[in-house]
Amino acid sequence: MDNFPYLFAAYTAIWIGLFVYVRRLARRSRELEEEIQDLRRQLGR
Amino acid sequence: MRRLEPLLAPAVFVAMVAALWLIFMVVPTERQMGIVQRIFYFHVASAWLAYLGFFTVAGASAVYLWKGSAAADRAAIAGAEIGVLFCTFVVVTGPIWARPIWGVWWTWDPRLTMTLILWAIYAGYLMLRAFGGDDEAVARYAAVLGIVGVLDIPVIRVSVRLLHGIHPNVLNQPQGSGLADPKMRLALYVASIAMLLLGGWLAMVRMRQERLASELAALRRLAEERA
Amino acid sequence: MRAALAILRKDLRIEWRTKESLSSLIVLGVLLLVALAVAYDPTPETAPTLAPAVLWATFVFTGLLGIQRGFLVERENDCLAGLLGAPIDPAAIFAGKLAANLVLLAAMQAIVVPLVGLFLHVDLAASVGGLLVVLLLGNLGFAALATLFAAIAVRTRAREVLLPVLLLPLLVPLLIGAVKATEHVMTGGLAGARDALGVLVAFDVIFTVAGWLLFTYVVRD
Questions:
Q1: Least CA distance to B218: which residue of chain A?
Q2: Are B168 and B90 in contact (CB under 8 A)?
Q3: The total number of structural domains that make up chain B
Q4: Tens of pLDDT along C101-157?
Q5: What ipTM does the predicted assembly reach?
Q6: Which of B36, B81, B197, B210 is the best substitution to test chain A (most A C-beta atoms within 10 A)?
Q7: Residue B206's domain spans which residues?
């Protein structure tokens, strides 16, 4: 019962990894879509 | 496949919650290792996903080299990123589990060493894609690396047995002395399914993003021509 | 086959005229050996246990630089483009370059290995036969992967850093096999090295064939 910190650390590590990756995906997707909209407008399509 | 797409996100959610419930509420505490053993379920599931990711890279890379399919290239990128992500989970949760049980953070044990090498190979793949330059040929080079990496796996496996080691061989014991309780096996399977669905979901998002990137590149080229 | 030999002869002739790569390889190898030996500062009793690891660490790092240089020089002079213009199978180019790199490695090792015996108090003469076998097998696998990836690294932006980053993890099984085999050969004989040699042979076969098949995809511009 005294090893709880390790259990917590392991699951938190996974959570951090997932969170960072998903946030990166979301951000990049948003940037891409914005730039595509801009260019589309520029090219008058 | 397309029709199942909107089901994916809720499926991930449900599977994850089910896995967590099993791991923390249903599974008994292991006799020798105590509660730290509960790390095992996501640790092993992540390892399986990492391998799946790396094999995907190899397969997609082969298809890309052979047919030049852009979709295959996108699958390779997704496979590598997600493979490295899950491999990172393995390499991080492993030591966290090891420290209270074996007293050390790390040993050059066969399984640990192999996982670390695999991590390094595919991290290198990501570096090649990130820093290799904007030349289209980089996709081809990465494909070569993707295939070579997977070819290395059996050799790494065998060579690494020449080293010394203490990793618990839980799933391969002759008398099944590892996962005694059927509830533990269930938890492992559900955790694996949860990770699989999660990996699939992330892959789908990543590939879609890559398609956006190609679209953007095409638009940029059009804009340059017009300018 | 003939094309491969022609390329091998061309590369060796160029190298023989300038001796640039060879001399820098040898000097680098010796310097690295000295650095490692001094850093460990072993006693005459513990020194022999260091020898296998020091040997292969030196070969891997020196070999990496040497093979990379070879491709860099070619790239600078656009030789590869010329080669590809001719009706030669790119796989033959791979074979030729692989052979040339093997010769280069062997030449470097001919100098460094005796020096290891000298600096680390190891009697290498007793195990020369076994040592040669290990060196041959180790060099082949190393050169196969290094040739393939040097061709890649040289075509990318971060070329100097990228080759070690990509190659070293892939080479770990070779390193393990070579060091263990060398250990056995130095203490017992070829027999005990059987498992390690098996690893080396498997590595060689897989990656020589893989390099042979995949090289076309690297140089197909």
A1: A36
A2: no
A3: 1
A4: 898 899 999 999 999 888 888 888 878 888 999 999 999 999 999 999 998 888 887
A5: 0.89
A6: B36
A7: 9-24+37-226
